[in-house]
Every structure is written in C-alpha cells, then in structure tokens.
Design brief:
This protein has a single domain, classed as Collagenase (Catalytic Domain). Strand 1, helix 1 and strand 2 form a beta-alpha-beta unit. It is an alpha/beta fold. Helix 1 packs across helix 4 and helix 3 crosses helix 4. It is built from 7 helices and 5 strands.
C-alpha cells in the first residue's frame, strides 16, 4: 500500500488535451509506484489511509519556467528549504525535445498521431516525475544519475526503458525520511469527502 498519495491538478485545463495529461500522469505514476507513491490527477484517491500531498501543475512556457532555454520544468524553493506546491512544466519545450529524435529510424515528420502523442506524453510524464522528485524529496539539487539528474537525453525521455529514471540509493533513503511523517487527509480532503458521502443514508 502506498505511503503517500499525490493528487495533481493541471492548469490551464484546456492547454493540452485531456488524453495527454492522463498519459503524463500515468507515466509519472509508473515511475513513482516503485517507491510507495500513488499519483492520480482527477479521481478520488484509492488509499484513504495514506498520507496526502497536492501539487498544482502549471503548463507554461520557457519564460514561465525561468530557468533557461533548456529547462523543461521548475519548482521554487524558499531560503528555508521548503518548496512550493506548484510545478511549472514547459509543454512546448518538452514537445520539441521529444520530437527531436527518430523513432524506429523515422523522423517526427513521418510519425503517426499515435506515435507522436505517445512520445510527447511519455516525455512530459518523465519531466513531471523529475519535478515531483524535488517536491517529495524536499531537495532542490540534482544527482549525477537517475531520475534526479539535471538533464536527460531526448532518447531516454521517449524510450520504453524506464531505468534511467530510477532513484539512487541515497534518494531512496531520503524519501523514506521525508515521507515517514506523511500527514493524513483532513476532513476537507478527498478522503474526508469520500467518508462523509459513504456515511450518508
């Protein structure tokens, strides 16, 4: 059973199609499921006794990310080390990077809609998983390898192999500490609302 439940809300709602947001959420969820983190974006949580965290995912551009032309996302940390619960993803930059490498030898100009959407959705989900890592690890820094490295090759972002997106042993240990005291959902949260609905005659 997951130790932490993470609920994502995307803004603006109409910036990308719903299926793309679902694909990105599913990819991030696959990466984090090995570490006891359950991620959903729209549904009620499946594990109401798990800790909860909430993130707002803002789909913006490079100027919104504010970290340079090669940045795919950002999350702000205060001087005391606490992070915002807002992640900015540069959807256009992710799309360009995802489409910059061939798939089975074919350039992006020859891709079908399905192949294009799969590549971009996978890349967006992996960029999202990286920013979620900063949030869950309470850590603004980067590693030399794995999910939390500063930059990932385009071929890794769209490839079927998820091994380049694993946590290091040090990061797994840090996650154990940061999630050990995960707070339960309060009465205003999704689990509280679900419990209240079930209690009604």
């Amino acid at each position: 059973m997951p130790r932490v439940y993470l609920h994502l809300t995307f803004q603006p709602d109409n910036f990308v199609q719903t299926s793309m947001k679902a694909a990105a959420t599913a990819e991030a969820a696959r990466i984090w499921s090995d570490y006891g983190v359950a991620i959903e974006s729209d549904a009620q949580p499946a594990f109401c006794d798990a800790g909860t965290e909430r993130l707002l995912i803002v789909l913006g551009g490079v100027s919104d990310v504010g970290k340079g032309q090669d940045s795919l996302g950002a999350i702000h940390f205060a001087p005391d080390g606490t992070s915002d619960s807002i992640v900015i993803l540069d959807y256009r930059a992710v799309s360009r990077l995802a489409m910059s490498v061939p798939v089975v030898g074919a350039p992006s100009s020859q891709w079908t809609d399905r192949v294009r959407d799969q590549a971009i959705g996978r890349a967006l989900g992996r960029a999202l998983a990286h920013e979620i890592g900063h949030f869950l690890l309470r850590w603004p820094h980067h590693s030399a390898s794995g999910l939390m490295r500063a930059q990932h090759k385009a071929s890794w972002l769209i490839g079927a192999d998820r091994r380049p997106f694993q946590l290091t042993a040090t990061e797994r240990a840090r996650l154990e500490v940061t999630t050990a005291s995960g707070r339960p959902l309060d009465a205003a949260g999704a689990c509280g609302a679900l419990a209240a609905a079930r209690a009604q005659p």
